[in-house]
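User: I'm new to structure prediction. If I give you an amino acid sequence, what do you actually give back? Let's try with this one:
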Amino acid sequence: MSAAPPALRPAAAVGSPTGVGCADPARGIALMILAAGLYAIMDALVKWLGPTYPTLQLVFIRSLFALVPLGLVLMREGTLAGLRTRHPFGHAARALLGIISLAAFFHAYASMPLADVVAISFAAPLFVTALSVPLLGERVGVRRWSAVVIGFVGVVVMVRPGPGMMQSAAWIALLGTVLYALVMISVRKLGRTETSTAIVFYYSLASIVVAGAFMPFQWVAPTGGDWALLIAMGLVGGIGQIAMTNAFRHADVAVVAPFDYTTMVWAVAIGYGVWGDVPALNVWLGMAVVMASGLYIVHREARLGLRRGIARRLQPRR
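Assistant: Good question. You get back a string of structure tokens that encode the predicted 3D arrangement of the chain. For your 318 residues, that looks like this:
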């Protein structure tokens, strides 16, 4: 997907199991800021190309070329052992949720200001915390429940329910966020036995197969320099995944996760520079509430020492 909000801890590195120790906070922060910028660039490319090309075509090309950086990592490691899996159906369920979520975000980018979609996506940690109770049986204390409730108020402020709310693309972005939270829940389960490489690889492969099945009916031949932009969209997203994953290898989640929110800085700058978009007051206010709630949840979980497996943004969100 794109700039995902800080929620859970990602795998230490592509191809490695979770639980690798932290060694270099400064490098981790730098990698997170780099990842946030790359995801914002990918989102901007999706928004630019969205009016011309079908959503599933963008999903297909993004997933196809995102495999290139991952393939280079696998070649460097010289082994395919990390792709072994004992839970193919778990990967299938995670992939289905991820594909629909990615398509929802891509559709929203084509219809809304870039920063607005990014702001709504920051609600993902709130949904992860809420859904982890019924789906994972985890215990959430009153402090984190309070942060979730307050954060949902911020979401309502951003989405602005009204008479025409079902026609608003904001609800598509919110749907993508909820589905992404479900993706994170499934990743938590898979992360207990699967490597980060396997989770990313099988998701990308499934995205290529599923979206590719629609290409004979939806393919629009790229013209001019669009091929370069489409390829860049996939490569940038794939490199962003690796950068974010390795950010959590070098620093603790409580140190690195807040810098994921720098995506909003990139999104506002790109949105204003390219399309002249400026987020409305309700977006700024709602985003501030959601970010504060999300950061508190990250802080609280770090203090409680919760270890939940692989984190979200290794997976392409958008």
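You can read the tokens as a compact description of the fold. Here is one thing that stands out. Residues 25-314 form one domain.
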